[in-house]
Write a structure and sequence with these properties.
This protein has 630 residues and is mainly alpha-helical. The protein has 20 helices and 9 strands. A 7-stranded mixed β-sheet has the order 3-2-4-1-5-6-7, sandwiched between helices. It has a two-stranded antiparallel sheet with strand order 8-9.
Length: 630
């Protein structure tokens, strides 16, 4: 036996009581997440029927809402088991609350039938050496009105007996319905199935054990341990103590309590709620009055059904815990959102588009403010070089002109979905991943359209935030026109808003600042000086004008030197605005890509996380505690 087995039987009870007292001032539930308390909180008055019934109703309603919110995300067996608890609770609450149905269960030869006969005072169930003696459940009712309960158990009226003295019988047990079950260790499978079925429907159970089989592994592993949460509606009776000598009864009883404590069955001693453990002899009647008194107190409280159903809800909450409570802090943080936006910006080529826009701005400035001879030479070079009409060197494929990398987009979606699903229970993590995958189906195409729109040449607008006659539009605004419905339309609207704020269009000609006309006029003046000086000099050479070489040469030199100087000054002045224009273009494309990603991926993920928070709040109510919403 290990160290745990060598401790006294009540060590676990003392530890539980100490933990309960330490957490008595906190929230219901006792555990860190408030899910462990259920209906067995310390210090509860067993007679507080109204409070228990109201609390049970709230928990059942929460369980019903919980299944309604999450049925499509859970496996059918999980939903069916929780639905069975709801169905059985509804069926029991429709029947008599004045009656308490208690099953007497035990192994072969433990004396179940002898015990029920002793309690009733009449031969209710057949006894004898032939096994199995009890082949079908037999009931004994101490008052009228239990027909509906017996029908629910599948016990016909011919198998229902009345106790001694007829009528209501013993007044102390008025409302009690005892059911003698077949042996739980019967060799016949039908008998064991009958035991399992009835145990799932009764309000309480009396487990009858004998000195030889009280430690039977089949009893503890198949019944007592799984039903440990039903301790408040459980009686464990050590029968046949007339066969024990001296203080052997106390030793066996202590060992039985130790085994129950190891099974997790709370013992109802020292004023604590839990199972009642008694020793008696149904044959001699020793200890029978104590059992009768305990049953009378149990029945008169009229709360056995409520406590049984509360224990069933506790068990259902325990089984549902893995699908509603995860580890860590599930959710999507701001950093994850920013990383996702950054990945989309890389995929759409926002930085490359900004660099291209800056080059275009500077190139446009050079064309507008350059000398006519230099512009004529560039025009001639473009004619000589096929494919270079856009001003870029032939044979080069700028990065910003590459289509959006689908692999990068898919990777970004996978990463953000995994970060959002981290810490979620498996069904909800899968729902988050599926929502992200559905939203990402049209995301690469939407980003491709953004990038293509950023490269598309359109008529240049003025510095008023218009391009091609449209106010501040971007390709994001066109995404909504694609087939695909709400997500794509929302992405398009987000892209349009981003473009409208920034003004201008990435692919159009850059807006011209106010000083450009002055620069163009200055450059035209320098050109006129060159032409005037050339004509002056030509007139002197032709003899039309008086020969004075220096003045025309100075005029021509002023025009020849002044033109490049004006162009250089314009190029220097254009660096700052060009850089800002490129940054604005990059920011605009980043915002448009972020709008697409938010509408098509992040918003569906946020919706799933919100739904999970809702069901988790409902689960907190079902479990009898209060879970912290992340």
């Amino acid at each position: 036996m290990n160290a745990v087995g060598q401790r006294k039987w009540d060590d676990g009870l003392i530890a539980r009581r100490a933990a309960a007292e330490g957490g008595a001032g906190g929230e219901p539930g006792g555990g860190e997440d408030g899910s462990g308390g259920g209906s067995k909180g310390p210090g509860r008055d067993p007679r507080d029927g109204g409070g228990e019934g109201a609390a049970l109703k709230v928990r059942l309603d929460a369980l019903r809402d919980l299944l309604g919110l999450s049925a499509t995300r859970l496996d059918p067996p999980v939903v069916a088991e929780a639905g069975r608890v709801l169905a059985e609770a509804a069926a029991r609450q429709r029947l008599s609350s004045r009656h308490t149905v208690i099953a007497i269960a035990g192994a072969t030869g433990s004396g179940k039938s002898t015990l029920i006969n002793a309690l009733a005072g009449v031969p209710v169930s057949e006894t004898g050496l032939r096994r199995p003696t009890t082949a079908a459940p037999i009931a004994c009712a101490w008052s009228e009105g239990a027909a509906g309960l017996l029908d629910r158990l599948g016990i016909p009226g011919r198998l229902c007996r009345r106790p001694l003295a007829g009528g209501d019988g013993d007044e102390a047990l008025r409302g009690l319905v005892l059911v003698d079950l077949p042996d739980h260790d019967s060799a016949l499978t039908a008998h064991r199935d009958q035991v399992d079925r009835v145990l799932g429907l009764v309000d309480g159970v009396i487990w009858v054990v004998d000195p030889e089989k009280y430690a039977d592994a089949a009893l503890h592993e198949r019944y007592l341990r799984p039903l440990a949460g039903h301790a408040e509606v459980t009686f464990v009776v050590l029968n046949q103590i007339d066969r024990l000598l001296g203080d052997t009864t106390d030793q066996v009883l202590d060992d039985l309590r130790r085994l129950l404590d190891e099974d997790g069955v709370a013992l109802g001693e020292h004023g604590e709620p839990g199972a009642t453990v008694l020793a008696l002899s149904a044959l001699t009647g020793e200890g029978l009055p104590e059992l009768r008194e305990a049953l009378g107190t149990f029945v008169r409280g009229h709360q056995a059904a409520t406590r049984r159903l509360s224990a069933d809800v506790d068990a259902a909450a325990t089984r549902l815990r893995p699908v509603y409570v995860g580890e860590g802090r599930p959710g999507l943080g701001e950093r994850s959102r920013e990383d996702f936006t950054a990945r989309l910006a890389v995929a759409v080529g926002a930085a490359a588009a900004g660099e291209a826009a800056e080059r275009a701005w500077r190139r446009n400035a050079g064309r507008a403010c350059g000398t006519p001879w230099l512009r004529l030479w560039r025009w001639y070079e473009r004619l000589r070089t096929p494919g270079a009409g856009g001003g870029e060197p032939a044979g080069s494929a700028p990065l910003e002109e590459e289509p959006t990398a689908r692999q990068r987009v898919e990777h970004a979606v996978r990463v953000v979905a995994e970060e959002a699903a981290h810490g979620l229970p498996a069904p909800w993590a899968q729902a988050v991943r599926e929502a992200a995958a559905r939203g990402a189906r049209g995301l690469p195409e939407a980003l491709d359209e953004l990038a293509a729109d950023a490269r598309a040449p359109r008529p240049g607008g003025k510095g008023d935030g218009t391009a091609g006659g449209k106010p501040g539009g971007t390709a994001g605004g066109t995404v909504g026109g694609k087939p695909g419905g709400g997500a794509a339309g929302a992405a398009g609207a987000a892209g349009k808003r981003a473009g409208g704020k920034a003004g201008g269009r990435p692919g159009g000609l850059p807006p011209r600042p106010a000083w450009w006309p002055v620069a163009v006029l200055s450059q035209a003046s320098m050109t006129l000086l060159q032409v005037f000086g050339a004509l002056w000099l030509a007139g002197q050479i032709a003899g039309v004008l008086e020969p004075r070489l220096l003045p025309p040469v100075l005029v021509m030199l002023a025009g020849i030197v002044g033109g490049p100087l004006v162009e250089w000054a314009c190029v220097a002045a254009a660096r700052g605005p060009a850089r800002r224009y490129g940054q604005e273009t990059e920011r605009r494309l980043r915002e448009a890509a972020a709008g697409c990603g938010r509408a098509m991926v992040l918003d569906p993920i946020a919706t799933e996380l919100m739904r999970y928070r809702e069901v988790r709040e409902q689960y907190a109510t079902v479990s009898g505690g209060r879970l912290t919403t992340r």
